[in-house]
What we know:
It is found in: Cytoplasm. This protein is an alpha/beta fold. Strand 17 (about 345-350) and strand 18 form a beta hairpin.
Amino acid sequence: MSSTEQFKVWAPRAHDVQLIVDGAHYPMRRAKKRGWWVSDIPMKPGQRYGYLLHDGNDWVGPFPDPRTRRQPDGIHGLSEVFSTDFPWTDHGHTTKKLQGQVIYELHVGTFTPEGTFAGVVDKLDYLVDLGVTAIELMPVQPFGGERNWGYDGVDWFAVHEGYGGPEELKKLIDAAHAHNIDVFLDVVYNHFGPDGNYNGLFGPYTTMGSTGWGDVVNLSGANSDEVRAYVLDAVRQWLEEFHVDGLRLDAVHSYDDRAAYSIMEDINRIADETGAIIIAESDLNDPRIISAYKHGGYGLDAQWLDDVHHALHTVITGENDAYYEDYGTLDILADTLRHGYRFRRTYSTFRERTHGKELDLSRIAPWQLITYTTTHDQVGNRARGDRPSQNLTPAQHALKAAVIFFSPFTPMIFMGEETYAQTPFPFFVSHTDEHLLRLTSEGRAHEFARYGWDLGTVPDPADTATFESAKLDWDCGNDSVEIHSAYKKLLSLRKDFNLARDDLRELQVEHGKNWLTMGYDDVVLAATFSDEPATVPVGGKLIYSFTQPKVTETSTVLDPWGFAVISR
């Protein structure tokens, strides 16, 4: 940090601004750049500061800096000047290409008993042994209280102190790189959290409308240039200063972005400079998100693909309520495996409209689609927050993993599934405003009631016990050991058979009444989705199975909910 760097803040809504540094008040002056205010006071690491705003009638505040890089006393406290200096040791590290990666999604606060970045560091050897090549951290930006999924963040340049703050995040990234593990951050640019969001007092960071989680971020309206710069500068900070290897953009379908250049394209161009990976969460089934610039796309590297999850989940569990009503047959699962998108300008019963557009498989590689047996959303959006592993037999659980890992899509593991975790992952918050806590609980209850869930089973998001129940139990039982072994073997076979292939059109998928095969000329996965044994017309040499199939040269008899990896 330069000793001549000055305090400055974008506050076009303020009639006047005062800077508070270590308890002293200083006037600020309007800068040449519209809406900005500056001070002649130099910034020094460790200074506590904030801003008083005059709204035309009174002085209000002090408030933390919208671009604060550290909030040592939480989201309502003063900001702290944070030095960019750090003794990095990862000078030889380069971000791996997405093709061939195995991603592990985790929530820092519940992944280990400590609930810290340091706790994650202690598990890096374990993740390497499992076969993980990248970890994806659920959002780590500051939020109200000490417990939150992270999607209520308000300070987009800062790091939650309860996890260890910015210094400990850098230590985790440095340690991960030493283990040849990439680090992705989940970032939320579609809304601000409701607790501690003071940005609206400074300027028009949001606009009319609601995403369902908060006001719409102003990406297209008046004064949106500075809001977009706010997002893009945060992106650059994570990728350059923090050495982050990639970002997962939360719910891009909620962006109110009508500019000729999408904010996603602008984000990706910054990533192009560093070689970082940008992944979108999107339910639009819109090929533009992951299509190259030259083909009119935004150029992102990949997107989460709920379609494969939904298709697989429904054929194993039989659930068909809410958004699952568009799935539920092996024909749909096979079709989704062949095409990536379930909806390709076809009708969605759940949405009650035509949805999606077909991927051009000659231009889009299957590894650009992230698939999974579950995610934080697919667990936490259930009334009890119950995991698939709490409802499935070990054989069914291993079967789901086999389908995901054997596909050419990029696989992602949600923390704990590889050990058949019996701990739930319910939604939890600890807003500092009691009114917000009540509204959050009522909102969750209303949503679950709309989908027919029993409200008596919904944990209170604000209850400490709800958060504690979500912490992983690392004391593994026999089933856990067997599942963990299966995950390691399947990931090893995925690498051995080079299953992260380039062309989805080469994937051979066939199915019968209760069985499905997927594979290539050299290797195939045979699977049955039934309580009854199934004879599958594929034979060869058995490479691996979780159960005891009978494999001949021409056919395979699978146990109920069984699978077999066969070399032919």
